[in-house]
Amino acid sequence: HYDGQHFERFMGRTDVAPAAAYENVWAVSEDFDGDFWVGSLGRGLACRDSRTGVWRQWDRINDGLTSDYIQKIVPLRGNSVCVGTSGGLCVINKSNETVRQVSSDLGLVNTRIVDLYADSRGLLWVAASNGLYAIDPESGNTLVHLHSRNGLSTDAVVGIVEDRRGTMWVSATSGIININVLRNSKTDEYEFNSFT
Fold first, then answer.
1. Which residue, 9, 41, 139, 162, could crosslink 24 as a Cys pair with Cβ 3.0–4.6 Å?
2. What distance in Å separates the CA atoms of residue 175 and residue 130, rounded to the nearest whole number?
3. Considering only CA atoms, which of 78, 70, 137, 131 is closest in space to residue 102?
4. pLDDT tens per residue, range 89-111
């Protein structure tokens, strides 16, 4: 933490959550309330409340994360935070401090989450070891699972970003993949077309 004049170090301190004091931090994010999230490689997740400065630790055993190996943290609309781990996907509801595993019905059980991206439509994009998912984070429903058997050039997706026109760009071990996302005005459903 930098206050404008000095850096505050957290590593090795006993007055902060274990994930924040651990030297193996792989993910950081600030949510819409200004709370600071830290994901570690083996010690779970920590959140520093921006108003009080108090740390809250989250882990697999006590809170139900899919793994304590945190890969990515993405804030979502509606006071939630999505957490990608080496064992699947979780959504933390900050209001009631509950963890919902979003993996069993999506084919994401014990699946390593590589990247997450919340797009301008409110969809959550998940790069996993078995392809790319577009998920409605409120319902937890998968809108599409793209992989090598239905159009992607590979299952190994490593990064996701959206351009200003709403087109999704995906980096993969086979190169760049471009995905056009259209909404059918008659059915109100999304259509996904990928180009490699």
1. 41
2. 16
3. 137
4. 899 999 999 998 886 555 666 68
